[in-house]
Specification:
The protein is 26% helix and 31% strand. The chain is α+β, with helices and mostly antiparallel strands.
Length: 1016
């Protein structure tokens, strides 16, 4: 046989484009179009139904950026179409691709939602809408027949990510302009040709499969010839009438079953909906409504369809803002077609949220699903977050989950992750069964190339035979389409293709676990070798998160103490609401700083409002506890004692002798000394010497200077707000020029020097200070930042030979190599740390602590002069990417960090808490005994609160913080009738014995323990 493969394939492609797809719809009648442009922000459907609509026509422009236009579409269904399938086909010229930008939601004239529209889903069902409840217009009545009318809320969301990652002002309503972006392209009723639809699905499944098969496999030419015969059977003058005959030619090849050893794919419908990203939060509420309406419409026609719907916040939005969509959602959950999954409030970032915040993601997410649906979710669903903390497995298990899913690690820039199905072991030893979909997408379409990639790419062949594939338009939602379900039906058991089964994710996980329970183990964090700049971008968002987390700790602690003392009510509703606002802003495109300006502007406003509320809650509780008087009462919310004030308690400040702080000049340098540390600030305003006096050791490496600001050119190849590429290190400017150096405090409790610098369009004022009783150098920064595509870091070159650095993560810390022996180590050139990072050699080290910084890097170099090793710790302070927010980080920033010389892990833990939980003073009469005391500093109390069920029980969450086994005695200042160990949701796991008013605990390294004390 002559080789005419390319000829037949070209024939097929033209037939699809010019003959078959245009024949999907037959006879048409135009829809009458009317429009009302909503002023300002979106309005409820009731407002739109009562609006004054004006005539519109095909070709009309509509939609200034971020505007909303309502269309009223009316027609008469011709009587001769009785018994045919009729659909409304509406193309408003939406841009941005399905799920991303402009979309619409159709409503009946009674205000009931129908389904969403997007660029890949432009039809509306007519059956049921042309009957009772529809009030036809006078125009429609005059034509006779059944009337059809819908209202369409159309969002004019701009495509913010431009080709080549060009900066744009479209990311905020105030700068986006007012010119209409879209035009009405199509609006008609049309007869839907069912046989043509099915022929299209037959052809696309076979053609896509054929293109993935090797040319020497007999199955490929077999499919090619069947497709050729199908085209021969078509009558181009009557495609709807000949489509059934064309399908007959394909039936034999579609009927051949899959190979016995074919890879098996569990497909689950999904619509990954970023809770904010290239659109603001308010738009996500509408995206969820459109998607749920789409999904419930599909579910009604496909009883076996299953859809995984994560993020409790998005469910809650439907309950609050779209009650009719909420009713449909609840019904679909009850029928088992929509599956609440994930068990988190949002799909949060998992690197930067603090330990307690990460726990509360599960507490509030799972509680919502339990309260509203009675469903205990078991699968943690985080397909798109930018790497995963090693603390996660323990939190996953303590929240009552069994499984973990992500996909993002497939984006690694350097190293291919070696597994798709494996056990993930966390920093404490907890393991969770984990899966990465080998199709490398969470927005699957069930196409031939996706299925072939899943089968070819699966890393665990010979061990496991199943993988999972989430399918549906995502990022901005939209979800599965009928075309995807049509492909799934044909791919269930098809020769040379993986087998496809639509099912519940839990069914997949249970089966995969049962067949591959001895899967390999990955230990520690799942570091994403991409998007490393998300630890730094949008500094005010990150600072707001860090501050909110610690204010919430204080608000709960002091409110619990006041409630137990009977002096104030516990603010359950306020704390619940505030926690949910903080958790929402930990979403994986908000906290990482990768959203448009609108999103981060709102986040900053939210954090400021929450801070005011939390400060008021804290002050109210502290005043109630301190009582009436004129003494100064010092409150210490940190989990360790501070200058005589007990951990998590308060004491009346006693008079003391003058503190031993001094300032003296030595030539052009200024020397600060408090008896614990001696600091020399040289003529450049840099730390030329930091001596820890007890050991006499110098912290700063010979010939180097600490607190050195360094400015890098920062122009990543792609994903500006997300990425920092390693070549940024090739170009650096040390900021050593100084505008002024002045002593600003040299008496009382601290000594301080202020250093001011100017560079580019920016200025920075640094206050370098030491306090009484503190063995550390504090640096408070006020930066007026006006750079573009620059990266600001601060360096501490330290005189220690450290093979590894320790970085705080949730409920513990992780070690990372300081060398670059392997590509895996070299790829971690920028990493996340929470409140502290510590480097050292056996017996001695240093820590750098901070109050709002997450990005860090550590390098080391051997000095030729003396053979010693310099280990340089750098904090990433600010960036200035221009996409998607062209004004990222512009403006004034205040942030603090401190060098703690001579610090081991224990000191790093303590000082990390202290810099984030400064002492507070209140005028009153008495101190406050801590509700809870622990006699081992390695056992750290992370949270003290009253129980969620409002029983009045006191809940204490603690963990082992030093990385070793620890025993401790947990005592309370109130009578404890009983103590129960619980999971994160405060549900009992085991009874604990109270002996002499205390509980003895033994913790493995980094173990989290939640204790619930019933008060006597």
């Amino acid at each position: 046989m002559h080789d005419d493969q390319k000829l037949v394939e070209a024939r097929l492609e033209r037939a699809l484009q010019q003959r078959l797809r245009p024949a999907l719809y037959g006879d048409t009648v135009p829809l009458d179009i009317e429009v009302w442009h909503a002023p300002g922000e979106p309005v409820p459907v009731t407002d739109a139904l009562a609006a004054d609509f004006k005539p519109a026509a095909l070709g009309d422009k509509w939609g200034p950026p971020w505007g909303t236009s309502w269309f009223r579409l009316t027609a008469q269904v011709p009587q001769e179409w009785d018994g045919l399938r009729v659909e409304a086909v509406v193309d408003l010229g939406f841009g941005g691709g399905p799920g991303f930008s402009a979309e619409g939601l159709a409503y009946t004239p009674d205000g009931d939602p129908i389904k969403g529209l997007n660029p890949d889903n432009i039809y509306l069902p007519v059956s049921g809408l042309a009957a009772g409840g529809v009030s036809p217009s006078e125009h429609a009545k005059a034509k006779g027949g059944a009337a059809f009318q819908v209202y369409l809320e159309a969002a004019a969301n701009p495509a913010v990510i431009q080709s080549g990652f060009l900066p744009t002002n479209l990311g905020d309503k105030s700068t986006a302009g007012t010119e209409p972006m879209y035009e009405i392209r199509r609006a008609e009723l049309a007869v839907f040709n069912v046989d043509v639809y099915h022929l299209l699905r037959d052809i696309e499944v076979l053609a896509q499969l054929m293109h993935e098969l090797p040319t020497d496999l007999p199955r490929r030419p077999e499919i090619l010839r069947a497709l050729e015969r199908s085209l021969d059977a078509l009558d181009y003058d009557d495609i709807p009438g000949s489509a059934a005959l064309a399908r007959e030619q394909l039936a034999p090849v579609l009927a051949k079953p899959a190979y016995a050893s074919a890879h098996q794919i569990s497909a689950v419908g999904h619509a990954h909906i970023d809770s904010a990203w290239l659109w603001p939060l308010r738009e996500t509420v509408r995206k969820v409504a459109r998607t749920v309406s789409n999904v419930t419409t599909l579910a009604a026609d496909h009883p076996d369809f299953r859809f995984a719907f994560s993020q409790a916040q998005q469910h809650a939005w439907m309950k609050e803002h779209h009650p009719k969509v909420w009713d449909r959602l609840k019904a679909a959950v009850e029928s088992g077609q929509i599956i609440p999954i994930g068990g988190m409030w949002v799909e949060s970032d998992s690197n930067m949220p603090g330990g307690e915040a990460m726990a509360r993601q599960f507490v509030h997410g799972k509680k919502f699903f339990l309260d509203e649906y009675g469903i205990e979710t078991e699968t943690v669903w985080l397909p798109d977050s930018f790497g995963y903390s090693g603390a996660m497995p323990q939190l996953v298990k303590l929240a009552g989950n069994k499984w973990f899913l992500t996909q993002k690690i497939s984006w690694n820039q350097t190293n291919k992750f070696p597994h798709h199905t494996f056990w993930w072991e966390g920093i404490d030893g907890t393991r969770v069964f984990t899966h990465f979909p080998p199709a490398d997408t969470y927005n699957g379409q069930l196409t031939g190339d996706e299925l072939a990639r899943a089968q070819r790419n699966y890393q665990d062949q010979g061990g496991g035979t199943w993988s999972l594939l989430p399918f549906g338009h995502g990022d901005g939602g939209g979800g599965p389409t009928r075309e995807m379900l049509g492909r799934a039906e044909r791919l269930a058991d098809l020769e040379a293709s993986p087998k496809v089964t639509i099912e519940h994710p839990a069914d997949f996980f249970q089966r995969a676990h049962d067949e591959y329970s001895n899967a390999p183990v990955w230990v520690g964090e799942l570091y994403l070798e991409l998007h490393r700049a998300t630890f730094t971008s949008q500094a005010k968002t990150k600072q707001g998160n860090r501050r909110s987390e610690h204010l919430l700790r204080e608000a709960e602690l002091w409110s619990a103490a006041a409630a137990v003392a009977g002096r104030a009510d516990y603010p359950y509703e306020d704390l619940d609401r505030i926690w949910k606002a903080v958790l929402l802003n930990q979403f994986h495109d908000i906290l990482p700083g990768s959203s448009i300006h609108w999103v981060h502007r709102e986040a900053e406003e939210t954090y400021a409002r929450l801070a005011v509320e939390l400060e008021a809650i804290i002050e109210r509780a502290q005043r109630a506890l301190a009582g009436e008087g004129d003494a100064t009462v010092v409150f210490n919310a940190a989990p360790h004692d501070r200058l005589g004030v007990p951990a998590m308690g308060a004491d009346v400040r006693a008079s003391s002798h003058a503190p031993e702080v001094s300032v003296r000049r030595e030539g052009s340098a200024v020397v600060l000394d408090n008896g614990l540390v001696r600091v020399t600030v040289d003529e450049r305003g840099l730390l030329s010497s930091v001596v820890e006096l007890e050991s006499g050791r110098e912290a700063i490496a010979p010939g180097a200077a600490g607190n050195l600001l360094q400015l890098h050119v920062d122009t990543p190849n792609l994903w500006d707000a997300w990425d920092v590429d390693p070549f940024y290190r090739n170009k650096v400017r040390d900021l050593t020029d100084v505008d002024s150096i002045e002593v600003v405090s040299e008496s009382g409790t601290e000594a301080a020097v202020a250093v001011t610098r100017s560079f580019g369009g920016s200025t920075i004022r640094q206050t370098i200070r030491i306090g009484v009783g503190e063995c550390q150098v504090n640096v408070d920064n006020e930066i007026d930042w006006h750079e573009k595509e620059k990266f600001l870091k601060v360096a501490f070159p330290l005189d220690v030979r450290a093979d590894q650095s320790a970085s705080e993560t949730q409920f513990g810390h992780v070690f990372r190599a300081t060398h670059t022996n392997t590509s895996w180590e070299n790829a971690k050139f920028e990493f996340c740390a929470h409140r502290w990072i510590q480097v050292g050699e056996p017996g001695y080290g240093h820590a750098v602590v901070n109050n709002s910084t997450y990005g860090h890097d550590v390098t080391r170099d051997v000095r030729t002069e003396d053979g010693g090793t310099t280990t340089t710790v750098r904090l990433s302070l600010l960036r200035a990417p221009r996409v998607p927010d062209p004004v990222t980080d512009q403006g004034v920033h205040k942030l603090s960090y401190a060098l703690v010389p001579g610090a081991g892990i224990a000191e790093a833990v303590e000082e990390g808490y202290r810099i984030n939980l400064p002492a507070r003073t209140v005028t009153g009469a008495e101190g406050v005994a801590p509700l809870v005391r622990v006699d081992n500093p390695a056992v750290v109390v992370e949270a003290v609160k009253l129980a969620e069920d409002r029983s009045g029980d006191v809940v204490v969450r603690l963990y082992e913080a030093h990385g070793g086994r620890a025993t401790g005695r947990v005592s309370t200042s109130f009578g404890a009738a009983s103590v129960t160990e619980t999971d994160l949701l405060e549900r009992p796991l085991a009874d604990r014995e109270v002996v002499d008013g205390a509980v003895e605990v033994t913790l493995r390294p980094f173990q989290i323990l939640t204790l619930r004390f019933a008060r006597a």
